[in-house]
Amino acid sequence: MKKIFSTVSLVVCFAVTYAQGYKITVHSPDYKGRLAYLAYHFGNKLNAQDSGIISAKGTIVFSGKEKLLGGIYVIVFPGKTQTLDFLIDKSQDITIKADTTDLINKTIITGAPENSLFQQYQKEIAPEGKLLEKERQAYNLAKTKQDSDLHVANYSKINKGLLEVRETYITKYPESMLAVLLKAMREPKVLMDKPVTRQDSLDNYNYYKAHYWDDITLMDDRVIRTPFFIPKLTAYYEKVISQNPDSIIAESDYQLLLARNSPEMYKLMLNWLTDEYFYPKYMGQDAILVHLFEQYHSQGLSPWLTKKQQELISNRAYMEMANLVGSQGADLTLIDSSGKFKSLYDVVADYTVVCFWDPTCGHCKVQIPKIDSIYEASWKKHNVKIYAVLTENVRDQWTQYIRDHNLGDWTNVYQTKEMAKADEDANRTSFRQLYDVTATPTLYLLDKDKRIIMKHLDWEQINDFLNLKWGNKPAADKSK
User: May I ask the CATH class of domain 2-112?
Assistant: First the structure.
């Protein structure tokens, strides 16, 4: 009796586990003995979820013990030349009878009721899709402006009809998964199609920003596995909101708060933001990663990350903490070319350029003489001084380079092996970490109080900034 009870328990447990998982059965008699994939849309990419070989009977079963996140999934048939989109939501025991001679019109999907409406929609928009592609190709081949304008007008007309079809489905089936996805594809509206005044443009922007997320809820995980969510998220952070780090931090905190009740959305948002600002595109945005680390990662709010990933984020954040724009640069006390200790903070100047360089570096050999030229021609008379740090253990070549290029007006310093070893033994932060030196030359511009104004920019950009401060016209862009 005990043995029977154990067996029954195992069967029940297995059944419960399987019921919570997924099973996608695909019948495709045109492909046998070849590899097929179950994938899902993620921005402009298809990510593989599962794979397997189609049997001799033309059947393949994709299955797993964990339920799939809802969204738009794809069967990628052997050869990767044919694909079939379908929806996955709550019902995940799905059977697909695929007719590869006409996947849209002849394929039958059962087990997930949301696919009936999705297939109906696909059939209805398929002709418009072909016409849009035809106009797109014709536009690319157009040889005159008249032809180009014609194809643009045709494309707009067809696209308008497609949008009307989408709105019809949203209105008729407001509670459907399809309606959720179609609403998420909407472009935010503006108040005026043709703004006239500056205030019109400002009103347009404010309205567009305020209503950007009207049709997407960050509390619905299903929009993640679609072609449009990641592009929409990227566009918002790169083109819609101010690139000021404070604005981005405030927005990210708000959106992460909204996403807290949707674990997958929260995970995606935090991962995406961390990746986006790990190496930021604009100076000053390093504060964003520091904020994400302090408020989320270091608080144990990203438990899905591996220990190695957490260490990578931690190391990068700590490196950036020491040299945030607006903060005071760390003092450095190193040995100059005559053997005397020289402190960065002892350099008295209206502006100090801190230059980390190496005389054996090819890029330095090109840039260092240019920096010295602009220093002699302009910076020097405006009380700008250069504190130059050797990054490699090549002292003889360094001193020779200083002599050959007459860099005697610079404060040229280096760190001995013994000093570096003492810092390491005492667990003191190295100058490389303090100033995020991963390449040479690395340049910083500090003000008279040694606060960081600019960093990781080239000398031309520093020179343009200084000229603006001095009331001079910025120099024209030069090839590097």
Answer: mainly beta
Q: Residue 59: which region, alpha, beta or left (left: phi > 0; alpha: psi -120 to 50)?
A: beta
* CB atoms inside a 10 Å sphere around CB 333: 13
Q: Tell me the average confidence (pLDDT) per consecutive run of 10 residues in the chain, 480 residues long.
A: 30 38 94 94 94 95 95 95 95 95 94 95 93 93 92 93 95 96 90 90 93 92 95 96 96 96 94 95 94 97 96 94 94 93 97 97 95 97 97 94 95 95 92 94 97 95 95 55
Distance (Å, whole) CA 300 – CA 297: 6
For tokens 């993620």, name the residue: 42
- Residue whose pair of structure tokens reads 């100033």 in the numeric block: 435
All structural domains of the chain with their residue ranges: 2-112, 121-184, 198-321, 333-469
Strands 93-97 vs 22-27: parallel, antiparallel or unpaired: parallel
Kindly state the DSSP code that residue 328 receives in the 8-state scheme: B
Please give the Cα distance from 96 to 84 (Å, whole number): 10
CATH of the domain spanning 333-469: 3.40.30.10
pTM for this prediction: 0.83
